[in-house]
Amino acid sequence: MNDLMLRQANMTSLNVSPRKPDDTRAFVLSIIRSALPKSNEPLGQAAHHHFHDTGKILRAGLALSTAKALKVRSETALYWAAAIEVLHNASLIHDDISDGDTKRRDRPSVWAAFGRDIALALGDWLIALSYDFAAKASMTARAPELVSVLAKHMKDTTSGQAMEFEMKSYPEWNDYLNVIRGKTAPLFIAPVEGMALVAGRDDLIKPVADYFNAVGTAYQVANDILNLLGEDGALNPASDLIRRAPNGVIVTFRNTLMRDDADAFDQWLRSGDHQDASYWHNRILSSSALKITCEMMTGILRDAEHKASTIPDELVQIVNPLQQLLAKVCAESIQHAAE
After folding, report:
1. Disulfide-capable partner of 196 in 24, 204, 302, 314 (CB 3.0 to 4.6 Å)?
2. What's the pLDDT score for residue 21?
3. Given this model, what pLDDT does residue 254 score?
4. Which of 187, 178, 185, 188 is nearest to 213 (CA)?
5. Alpha-carbon distance 329 to 316, whole Å?
6. Which domains, from first to last, does the chain contain?
7. What is the rounded distance in angstroms from the CA atom of residue 52 to the CA atom of residue 271?
8. Contacting residues for 6 by C-beta, under 8 A, at least 6 apart
9. Which among 82, 186, 190 is positioned nearest to 134, based on CA atoms?
10. pLDDT (tens digit, 9 = 90+) per residue, 124-139?
11. Sign of dihedral through CA atoms 206, 212, 215, 217?
């Protein structure tokens, strides 16, 4: 992004709020897209393919809204928002490779369109870009520890993903919760923690972390329900089951089985075979697992609502829109489960 563009963005960026997603897109995406490789350069086509549709940009919005609430200078906020959003997108590209997902935001995923090697390289390139943005944010704020904040949450996200790979058997409920917290929460906590650190408000970090751990858990359980119902955009409604990916509905189903059925299901999971996936998928859908998982998700949502009430007043305007979005996602998953 050239200096003139950045100065123009600085003049108005702190007018962004969660109620103005178009503003958030304009400010953050102008920085990100201007830094991507050109189409005729290595990784250029793949990068522009991935960022053709940028999703909700929730994490960047959290950074910008927190900066506004805590009166952090706009240049710092813009670079920090870009750093978080780019790192999130790098994780999505790598996740699609690991999970074998061929779709991302209703388009072919990067690895499906350009191959695994290009996707892996693009994910790595975006991680480097995110640290470049974080370094710029730290320089404008005179807060070199910002880069360490990004590194900490990158490590936590990667460790959460690795927990899934290291499991020798399908997880129990508590192990499942640990995996999804590790994968989901860090890059929701990072946007707020970075701006709180710059503002000298370390007191905000723990309540924010507690809240986003609950939010990330509820959001992932809702997505797990939609996955088993074929409503999450995956090509195969049994994709989590086929991949043996930790999924709250599958964990719950396994716990409802009597010994002989549980042994047969465990044996099938360990085999890695795709045969009989349809059989077990239908067994799950006809069981009480969806209903029980919806009830457990509702309990997690209530916990998130309680933790939202403990967030200091300065950040209430940031939490409320996210809480509304979470409630909507959970309600949609319950509605689909009841159909």
Report:
1. 204
2. 46
3. 94
4. 185
5. 20
6. 1-168 (1.10.600.10), 201-339 (no CATH)
7. 39
8. 31, 75, 78
9. 82
10. 999 999 999 999 999 9
11. negative
| Contact status, residue 244 vs residue 266, Cβ threshold 8 Å | no
Q: Which residues contact 146 (CB under 8 A, 6 or more apart)?
A: 80, 134, 137, 138, 194, 197, 198
C-alpha 16/C-alpha 19 separation (Å) is: 8
In angstroms, the CA 179 to CA 172 distance is 11
How many residues in total does the chain contain? 339
Q: What token pair was written down for 70? A: 């805590």
Distances in Å between the Cα of 170 and the Cα atoms of 48, 244, 291, 308 are 37, 7, 21, 32
The closest alpha carbon to 185, from 91, 119, 313, 299, belongs to 91
> Which residue type, as a one-letter code, is found at position 103?
K
24 band by pLDDT with thresholds 50, 70 and 90: low
Cα–Cα distance for residue pair 85/337, rounded to 1 Å: 31
Range 26-30, long-range pairs (CB < 8 A, 24+ positions): 27/64, 27/78, 27/81, 28/57, 28/60, 28/64, 28/78, 28/81, 28/82, 28/85, 29/54, 29/57, 30/1, 30/5
Q: What is the pLDDT of residues 265-318, one digit of tens each?
A: 999 998 888 889 999 999 999 999 999 999 999 999 999 999 988 888 888 888
